[in-house]
């Protein structure tokens, strides 16, 4: 017979039970916080501003216990839900106003993710991280001068030597996918041009992937990433650091003026430029940014919930980004390939109602960007893709929906 006192076993059971219950309760709280963060911005009976303010208060109260969990969820949302970028930057701005140390930790997390994405050739992740950091300037979390320095460092890659642009190393062949023209009146140019292109490759013994490396793809991506970020933060930089912004744009203009575009002919969709000019993607975005600059960086497509909290956010202390230099090129790095912007419609195709935005309107770029994000994030989840696609279509004017159609078609008339 055991000589242990009966209550010893009971005490052990109670300790284990209490520990399990505590772990279970913590897990429930973590799951609840994650659900609240992920669902912010969805349809609700309350306003978005009210939901953001309430969520910021809830998260602040739980920072002491669930700090690392909250940091991880927010940094994941920044790159995995880029369509809600300004919602999450506003949330981070409100948390920074309440807890400066947390704001600093979040910026460190985002910077680390940005660096890792560049080194890992995760180009979309890097671009979404850069956009998020830029939008934090609007929320008074990051100082404008430090962001401008980062953008300048990225554009400086255009001055690099020794990156792939002249004699490429051997690479595997790249598959080409084409699409039959939706209109019998317009002939696709892929057959004749790609035949000539293939002949040239055979003569030089390079594959298509090798040939693409001739084009300054590394420099192109860094300049593209900077230009694609400016619609979000251009106005703020214009108001606070106008001279620095102009210097940045001049550097980009010089690079684009010297840039080779030998690939343009091979990537054309239509056999002629009438009625729709076929612009190379970087040239088109540059024209859209110049138009945005002419409009004093004012656009109406991007939701900016942080404007409702300006009186709170402007009182918060800001953080400076550390000095960040793009990682040097490595032979194993594979950069995104160039493409031509697909156009099928102009203002004459929408004679009634609001005028269709021009090809160089920043709205065309933003709609295309949004759609590409939806496809990228949900291409394996057809139901989620359909829901987000319908939401996008019904959130814009009918005249802007042609941009959605053009964007979908471009995905099939591209090098993969």
Automatic annotation (TrEMBL):
<protein>
    <recommendedName>
        <fullName>MIF4G domain-containing protein</fullName>
    </recommendedName>
</protein>
<dbReference type="GO" id="GO:0005634">
    <property type="term" value="C:nucleus"/>
</dbReference>
<dbReference type="InterPro" id="IPR016024">
    <property type="entry name" value="ARM-type_fold"/>
</dbReference>
<feature type="domain" description="MIF4G">
    <location>
        <begin position="30"/>
        <end position="293"/>
    </location>
</feature>
<dbReference type="GO" id="GO:0000184">
    <property type="term" value="P:nuclear-transcribed mRNA catabolic process, nonsense-mediated decay"/>
</dbReference>
<dbReference type="GO" id="GO:0003729">
    <property type="term" value="F:mRNA binding"/>
</dbReference>
<dbReference type="GO" id="GO:0006406">
    <property type="term" value="P:mRNA export from nucleus"/>
</dbReference>
<dbReference type="InterPro" id="IPR003890">
    <property type="entry name" value="MIF4G-like_typ-3"/>
</dbReference>
<dbReference type="GO" id="GO:0000339">
    <property type="term" value="F:RNA cap binding"/>
</dbReference>
<feature type="region of interest" description="Disordered">
    <location>
        <begin position="160"/>
        <end position="179"/>
    </location>
</feature>
<dbReference type="Pfam" id="PF02854">
    <property type="entry name" value="MIF4G"/>
</dbReference>
<dbReference type="InterPro" id="IPR027159">
    <property type="entry name" value="CBP80"/>
</dbReference>
<dbReference type="GO" id="GO:0005846">
    <property type="term" value="C:nuclear cap binding complex"/>
</dbReference>
């Amino acid at each position: 017979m055991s000589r242990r006192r009966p209550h010893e076993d009971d005490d052990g059971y109670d300790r284990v039970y209490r520990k399990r219950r505590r772990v279970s309760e913590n897990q429930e709280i973590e799951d609840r916080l994650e659900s609240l963060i992920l669902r912010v911005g969805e349809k609700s009976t309350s306003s978005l501003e009210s939901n953001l303010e309430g969520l910021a208060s809830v998260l602040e109260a739980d920072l002491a216990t669930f700090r690392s969990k909250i940091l991880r969820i927010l940094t994941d949302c920044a790159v995995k839900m880029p369509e809600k970028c300004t919602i999450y930057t506003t949330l981070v701005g409100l948390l920074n106003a309440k807890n400066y140390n947390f704001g600093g930790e979040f910026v460190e997390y985002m910077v680390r993710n940005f660096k890792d994405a560049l080194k890992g050739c995760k180009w979309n992740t890097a671009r979404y991280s850069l956009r998020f950091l830029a939008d934090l300037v609007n929320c008074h979390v990051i100082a404008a001068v430090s962001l401008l320095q980062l953008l300048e460092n990225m554009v400086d890659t255009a001055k690099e030597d020794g990156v792939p642009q002249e004699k490429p190393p051997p690479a595997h062949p790249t598959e080409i996918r084409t699409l039959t023209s939706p209109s019998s009146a317009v002939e696709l140019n892929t057959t004749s041009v790609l035949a000539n292109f293939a002949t040239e490759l055979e003569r030089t013994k390079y594959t298509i992937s090798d040939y693409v490396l001739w084009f300054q793809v590394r420099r192109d991506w860094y300049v593209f990433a900077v230009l694609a970020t400016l619609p979000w933060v251009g106005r703020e930089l214009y108001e606070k650091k106008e001279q620095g912004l102009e210097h940045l744009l001049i550097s980009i203009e010089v690079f684009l003026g010297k840039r080779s575009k030998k690939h343009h002919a091979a990537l054309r969709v239509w056999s002629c430029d009438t009625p729709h000019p076929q612009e190379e993607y970087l040239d088109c975005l540059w024209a859209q940014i110049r138009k945005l600059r002419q409009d004093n960086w004012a656009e109406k497509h991007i939701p900016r919930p942080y404007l409702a909290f300006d009186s709170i956010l402007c009182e918060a202390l800001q953080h400076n980004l550390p000095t960040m230099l793009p990682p040097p090129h490595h032979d194993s790095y594979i950069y995104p390939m160039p493409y031509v912007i697909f156009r099928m419609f102009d203002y004459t195709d929408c004679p009634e109602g609001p005028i269709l935005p021009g090809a160089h309107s920043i709205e065309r770029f933003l709609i295309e960007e949004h759609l590409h994000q939806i496809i990228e994030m949900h291409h394996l989840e057809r139901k989620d893709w359909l829901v987000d696609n319908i939401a996008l279509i019904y959130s814009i004017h009918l005249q802007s929906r042609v941009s959605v159609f053009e964007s979908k078609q471009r995905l099939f008339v591209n090098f993969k």
